[in-house]
Amino acid sequence: MLNKITNATYYLLNDDTKERPALGLVCGDDYSLVIDAGNSSKHAQDFIKQMKLMNVPPVKYVVITHGHWDHFLGMNEFEDAIVIVNHLTDQILHKWRSVSFHDDDLHKLVDAMMVSEKHLQIIADEIPKRESFNLQCPDLVFQESLKIDLGNKVCMLETITSTHTDDSTIVYVPDDNVLFLGDSAYGATTRSLFHYKQDHLIPMIEEIQKYDAKYFILGHESICDQEEMNVYWNELLSTNQVTTSPFMDEATNSFISTFKREPNQHETIFLQAFVNDQILRKR
Ligand SMILES: [Zn+2]
């Protein structure tokens, strides 16, 4: 069984050991909508199996939140559904359709920086019949936003500013105060440096806070409530505020003198991530 958020919204827990993100489900009177297609055929099949135990309306739509492999490589399993992406994710998926998943070619994915070496084994293990695997085309491409009615249940799809990727889509279910964020609120790794884009941070938080959400589903955390999100935003905002140079000791000293305390474990990671962003921008 999937985890219940409200009477109409559910999620399958993320599994970090297999690099599986959380997957979402929204049910209307007539149809259901799935958020993210899973990192592989096996992940998608596990989700579909859990969903079938629940007797929900048929899945008419699958929304891919962004063009990272772990969120879309399972999409072929949703054969009868309309797969929806924004126009930027569509461009990324276009590149993946020319990829060969044959054992001899898999390493090319690492060379092209589409996946890390560590994730290659997961793809190899979780997609059987890879020799004949070809990623399907999305069925519906939208620009900025799209409203979908599942039968007395509206879902709002919006492309938002994000510190994770430039192609992030979120799904908001206003009746249920549920916001599926994908990975949009996370940082990113660029040239081996983990960073949060400083110039995207405040616009992103402002955009997300416009939604009247009580429950937030994050790709690799599953569910967070408002209080947990506020702690996260405050830690990001305070560490962002004091980071004005590409030097960790300067950022840490500035944090201590501004807030009269040492940064906690999360804040130390965020300080380093903003310092890394300064380093990447100076390169
Ligand atoms: Zn991602």
Global mean pLDDT: 95
Specify the CATH homologous superfamily of the domain at 3-97 and 135-198 and 212-225: Ribonuclease Z/Hydroxyacylglutathione hydrolase-like
Oligomer: single chain
Q: Estimate the global geometry from the Cα principal axes.
A: globular
CATH uppermost class of the domain at 3-97 and 135-198 and 212-225: Alpha Beta
Number of helices: 9
**CATH A-level architecture of the domain at 3-97 and 135-198 and 212-225:** 4-Layer Sandwich
Précis, in short:
This protein is α/β, with parallel strands linked by helices and 283 residues long. The protein has a domain at 3-97 and 135-198 and 212-225: Metallo-beta-lactamase, Chain A (4-Layer Sandwich).
Characterise this structure.
The strands form 3 sheets. Strands 1-2-3-4-5-6-7 form a 7-stranded mixed sheet. The protein has a domain at 3-97 and 135-198 and 212-225: Metallo-beta-lactamase, Chain A (4-Layer Sandwich), CATH 3.60.15.10. The chain has helices spanning 41-52, 69-72, 87-96, 107-111, 117-126, 198-209, 226-242, 248-259, 265-282; strands at residues 3-6, 9-12, 23-27, 32-35, 59-63, 82-86, 140-142, 145-149, 154-159, 169-173, 178-182, 188-190, 193-195, 215-218, 222-225. Helices cover 35% and strands 23% of the residues. It is built from 9 helices and 15 strands. The mean pLDDT is 95. With 283 residues, it is of the alpha/beta class. The chain is globular. Strand 5 (59-63), helix 2 (69-72) and strand 6 form a beta-alpha-beta unit. Residues 66, 68, 164, 183 line the site of zinc ion (ZN).
